[in-house]
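Why do we care about 3D structure at all? Because function follows from shape, and shape follows, mostly, from sequence. That is the central idea of this module. The next example makes it concrete: a single protein chain, its amino acid sequence, and then its structure expressed as tokens.
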Amino acid sequence: MLAITLATTACSSLPNDTPDVESLEDKNAQLAAREAALDRRLANIEAREKALKTRAETPEPATAITQLRTGDDLLPPEAKPGECYTRVWAPPTYREVTERVKTQDAAETITVIPATYKTTRKRVLVKEASTKLIAVPATYKTIEERVMVKPAAKKIVKVPAIYETHSEQVIDKPAHTTWKRGTGPIQRIDDTTGEIMCLVEVPASYKTITKRVLKTPATTKIIEEPAIFKTVEKRVIDQPATTETVAIPAEYKMMTVKEIDTPAHENRAPIDAQYTIMTRRELVQDGRMEWRSILCDTNTTPDRISDIQRALDEAGYYPGPIDGIIGVETMRAVNAYQRANDLPVDKYLNIATVKALGVSPH
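And the structure:
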């Protein structure tokens, strides 16, 4: 049985101090509230243990069906006790459809009659009249000029601060109180007696630290710097560059050219549409996941497996030794039989195949 018990007795070990009556009353009230909460929790745990014990001693019926949670509805529909199912992929099914299909639309043939040409002599423009710009370069002269290389300025110089080192003693950990276990003439005997807890005063502790104190703050001072000048020779434009426009006449030439005598044209003849008879596959049902009834360890026996192996052997599909064990050779024979008889093909012994072999699934 689970149990939770807590009892605490507090006493003060501070020398020459009288505890605050109101503070002690508040603490006693808090302890009493905690004890009541723990008693309620203990009663709740005991009630749960009794319920679990009663449930364990009461056997459930063998045919009881466990209720499913909401959302667990993806299970085999209308299943009966003793049946086994597996969720498999059922491939899409198709049917053959024959229809008259147009292979070529109605059209017309177009025959292009090319143009005919003739040769003649013509004065042809070879180059159009235009204008040309001629650049006239600029002329330059040299002059002297006094230029400022560096302007007058004021420079700010930083004067660093001066520091001193001072040491002082500071509190590392302040004085405080803490609860420690105590001993007395009456010790804890069982869960109904309390432990002795004493409130002890711990004095403050100190440490020495070293500080860097500013003696003289950092300052700045201004230094003036005069401007610097220099005489230089400078090349400047005397006469700016210009342009002159010159006219260029058009150019012609006598040439033999080819001209259209008769323009190209087209002849059109209609063509009837063409059809053919075609057979195509049409989707009847999309592929889907479905529940398929199968044999498994729950609803089969080695004797029933042996019956299935014998039925396969009689149908001309060698299943390997008739040993009542579903092995690789047996499943290879099962799948071959399924394909030959248009049955669902999977890696299980489905009930449709068992019935087709003439073996009772029950």
